[in-house]
Amino acid sequence: MNFVQNFPFFSIILAMFSGIVSSVLDGRKARNLSLAMIAVTTALSAGTLLFCLGSGESYTFMMGHFPAPWGNEIRAGILEGVTAIFFGIIMFLAVLGGLDHTAEDVEEKKLNLFYIMIDLMLSSLLALVYTNDLFTAYVFVEINTIAGCGLIMIRQKGRSMSAAIRYMIMSQLGSGLFLIGLSILYDVTGHLLMSPARESVELLVAAGSYRIPMLVIMAVIGVGLAIKSGLYPFHYWIPDTYGYATPTASAVLSGLVSKGYIFLLIKIFYRVLGYDNLVSSQMVNVLYVFGITGMVMGSIHAIHETDTRRMTAYSSVAQIGYIYMGMGLGTSYGMVAAVFHIFTHSATKALLFISAVGLYEVSGDKKDYISLRGAGYRNPLAGIGFTVGALSMVGFPMLSGFISKLLFATSALESPHKMLPTIIVLAVSTTLNAVYFLRLVITLYSRRRPEDAPIPETRARSSWQLRLAILCFIGVNLVLGLASQPIVQAIRDGLAMFG
Amino acid sequence: MIQHLSLNIEETAAVILFGIGFTILLLHRNLIKKIMGMNIMDTATYLFLASKGYITGRAVPIVVDGVQEVSAYINPVPSGLVLTGIVVSVSTTALMLSLTIRLYERYHSLDLDEILILAKEEERT
After folding, report:
1. Cβ(A85)–Cβ(A42) under 8 Å?
2. CA–CA gap between residue A237 and residue B97 (Å, rounded)
3. Residue A134 lies in a domain
4. What tens digit of pLDDT does each residue of B26-39 get?
5. How far is CA A330 from the centre of its chain?
């Protein structure tokens, strides 16, 4: 076995151990350890990806001493590698960008706890990406939930406590459904590892037995993970959670946590239940309907919001809708578009949350439209960052959002029954996105009026970390937008490896 | 139909309990009762797993008296899953309870709707 094949395991365990070690470090050291750990795990993921690209196939890595049908396994392929690298980069930039605000929002002696949560979050995300075992996935889903809850409640101001309990309740509903789904799946197939479970599922489908249990499994696992990722009718916890947490936490929760669950769902669809079975059982249509409803309703809620941070959070509801719509199209093209949109949305939403912080800094920490008037002149880089993010969400060419929308539109052409509604809803949703995002961008670049309340004395300029993070996020967005071809190809190859 | 349900009495009970717990967690306004609902839901899943792993007339898979045939023992995997699940649900329960204490200290209420309204008002002032 090649040494590189150990890397996924190393990265998960490294992240977990830095969390444990951080519990005895002070805040500053914990922070530095966390940043170093994220950089190292991202490099390890890059090594894994290069190995998989070189060998042209995925591999499984046995955990412990029990071989395939019983033991625990990690699986790495192109898509896992790309996703892990991407999650690492976004995590690093989000932590870097929110550095000084984290130090302000969190009590000095609790600062190391915040970075423990970040470490555990990354470790659970990596485990969700790499694992080949369903029950391990459940355990890491719970670790992810607990770490997420910690990230929200550590800022003990405003509504973050009530947001945390709401998040926890919804997450527990999702985890409960996911767990019962796994239990039924285990009873029907007799396996917890994805590959043998897949073989049993194929046999059952071919024999036509256990039709109703299979349907229940698909529904329960799908709905469970949809609740946790905040698909439209289950989105009530999103605006509070993203709106009141500290900036790093908002960026991580909106950009990565929900994406980790969606990635797990895609993995289960392909590697356990079989995407063709989902298509033939009409389950994808349910996701499709929820997705297109979310695309419109999320945007409408966002238009009504006066708090710009909650507006950005509601926009996440719409974007999650896009992803589920792509999954619901029932074609591999739709799935490629959905996975690409996972990347687009994490990069863009993290950029929006982080650059919005730069704008609030120069507006006396107010988040409404009137206070933000002219903020784009007061903090030019943050203004540009927010504008790039907003244009990307709307679908401006050269930016990643455009490629996502293009992929969704072209993949809709492949599925004749869903073509018309998809294109119409894409157009409507794009217009609505433009309404609220461009309204804010125009506000940022309009002159302050004499009757506006004076801005309280604020810091002269943002910290260099924040500015660096904004620049890097803009870079990631441009890379996704301008050099999308190799990434789309990698997603396509990765999904082919899943099947 | 009824015959199937009575044949799988434990599973039927587990699914009904799951529904009860899920509904309480989703709809009840009292936070403590919500947490109870969550525990009922989780425990129902463990009942389901444990009853699926049990095979009538077989023993716990601990080798005594040199009996090594697989047919003598029940499936040990679900028991392992239940144990792991219990650990997870204990930690989430502890977290939810501690959050409830913090919320009670701050808002002097266990009613989630009331807490949300109070939090909204607090923000406005």
Report:
1. yes
2. 19
3. no
4. 999 999 999 999 99
5. 21
- Residue corresponding to tokens 């306004």: B29
Identify from A138, A165, A217, A306 which residue to disrupt to test chain B contact, counting B C-beta atoms within 10 A and taking the largest count: A165
d(CA A6, CA A251): 30
Residues in contact with A480: Cβ distance below 8 Å, sequence separation at least 6, in sequence order:
A343, A344, A347, A399, A400, A403, A487
- Supply A349's token pair: 């939403």
Residue written as token pair 């996924």: A8
Per-residue pLDDT for A458 more than 80? no
A342 and A336 in contact (C-beta within 8 Å)?
no
Diameter over CA atoms, chain B: 74
pLDDT score at A456 = 67
Within a domain: residue A468? Answer: yes
Sign of CA dihedral B71, B74, B78, B80: negative
Beta bridge partners of A72: A63
- For residue A188, which phi and psi values (nearest 5 degrees)? -75, -40
Identity at A105, one-letter amino acid code: D
Q: Does B95 reach chain A within 8 Å, measured CB to CB?
A: yes
Short-list A154, A153, A151, A129, CA closest to A141: A129
Is A183 within 8 Å of B49 when comparing Cβ atoms?
yes
Residue A172 falls inside a structural domain:
no
Residue B5 contacts A, CB cutoff 8 Å: no
Tell me if A181 sits within 8 A of A220, measured CB to CB: yes
Contact B40, B17 (CB under 8 A): yes
Estimate to the nearest angstrom the gap between the alpha carbon of A261 and the chain centroid: 8
Domains observed in chain B: 2-124 (1.10.287.3510)
Chain A neighbours among B 52-91 (CB < 8 Å)? Answer: 52, 77-78, 81, 84-85, 88, 91
Rg (CA), chain A: 22
A364 three-class SS: coil
Name the domain count of chain A.
Answer: 1
B12 burial (CB, 10 Å; 0-12 / 13-18 / 19+) is middle
Q: What are B57-72's pLDDT values in tens digits?
A: 888 888 877 777 778 8
φ, ψ at A301 (rounded to 5°):
-60, -40
Q: What would the two tokens of residue B121 be?
A: 């008002």
The sign one gets for the Cα dihedral A391, A491, A329, A186 is negative
Tell me how far apart the alpha carbons of residues A90 and A473 are, in angstroms, rounded to a whole number.
Answer: 8
| Residues B86-100: tens digit of each pLDDT | 999 999 999 999 999
Q: Does residue A75 lie in a domain region?
A: no
Helix B9-27 to helix B31-53 angle, to the nearest 10 degrees?
160
Decide: helix, strand or coil at residue A74: strand
